Amino acid sequence: MRDVAISKSEFLPDQSAVSKLQDFQEDQELFRYCTLPQILKYVECFTGPNIMAMHTMLINKPPDAGKKTSRHPMHQDLHYFPFRPADHIVCAWTAMERVDRSNGCLVVLPGTHKGTLKQHDYPDWEGGVNKMYHGIRDYDPDQQRVHLVMEKGDTVFFHPLLIHGSGMNRTQGFRKAISCHYASSDCYYIDVKGTSQEIIEQEVKEIAQRKYNAGSDITLQDTWAVRGRLVKGQRTML
Ligand SMILES: O=C(O)CCC(=O)C(=O)O
Predict the structure, then answer these.
(1) In angstroms, rounded to a whole number, what is the distance separating the alpha carbons of residues 45 and 222?
(2) Of 63, 68, 85, 100, which has the highest C-beta tally within 10 A?
(3) How far apart are the C-alpha atoms of 219 and 95, rounded to whole Å?
(4) Does CATH place domain 20-191 in 3.40.1010.10?
């Protein structure tokens, strides 16, 4: 994925700046992160013994080009997932270098994982917003926030309903983090028709058709089933 503010004018003319790698499940070295026993030991507390790595990302937050597009709007990851129950899904997010407010650390609203899934939309940001960066529609910026300052190798595990995002990268370097969303393979797919998640289903289907030549009958569930990889136990439902 490319940052919307630098997609046409790179930092270095002959190099493209990639702001996020998604779905690295076929890359042996990157995927090794998702299988690390020191990560799975904690993941299992949430998922139980049958563990699927569902969503993989290496986030390379670029220096902000002056338009604040390096921010990630406040959102809940469950908005993207057509599987449940939410309590059997967990994200592991590992800092690949020190992250703090200067390079855009994670920002979380403590306790929000006990709430419900909120309506998400593209935020109305003056400088534009990156593809798939949906944010909570009626986000109240006055809610108590916690900035997660982390050292290289620190890992945070969080619930898919936790409201979170990340700030602007005001440094000259790319801020790197690696993450994986795990789910119990005993989770089940849901139909998101008629729910707040319909908008993400539509967008994902369009991308699958345009970029991967998928047929018009592809479902949101299909796009997850092909990406999910078993990392421990047995693949039962997902
Ligand atoms: O690493 C970040 O800046 C935030 C990533 C995030 O929240 C996401 O991709 O869902």
Answers:
(1) 27
(2) 63
(3) 33
(4) no
Helices of type H across 75-219: 198-212
Cα 21 from Cα 71, distance rounded (Å): 17
Could you read off the pLDDT of 85-138 as tens digits, one per residue? 999 999 999 999 999 999 999 999 999 999 999 999 988 877 777 788 899 998
**CB crowding 141-174: b at 16 or more within 10 Å, else e:** eeeeeeebebeeeebbebbbbbbbbbbbbeeeeb
| Bridge partner list, 21 | 58
Q: What tens digit of pLDDT does each residue of 4-30 get?
A: 666 555 566 666 678 899 999 999 999
Neighbours of 80 (CB within 10 A): 21
Query: How many angstroms is it from 147 CA to the middle of ligand 1?
Result: 13
Residue-range domain boundaries for the chain: 20-191
Residue nearest to atom 10 of ligand 1 (CA): 77
Which residues of 43-119 form beta strands (DSSP E)? 51-61, 72-75, 83-84, 89-95, 106-108
Q: Which atom of ligand 1 is nearest to the CA of 104?
A: 3
Instruction: Measure 20 CA to ligand 1 centroid, in angstroms.
Output: 9
Ligand 1 atom at minimal distance to the Cα of residue 20? 9
Q: Report the nearest atom of ligand 1 relative to the CA of 177.
A: 1
Residue 120 to residue 173: CA distance in whole angstroms: 30
Place of tokens 């989770």: 187
Considering only CA atoms, which residue is closest to atom 7 of ligand 1? Answer: 165
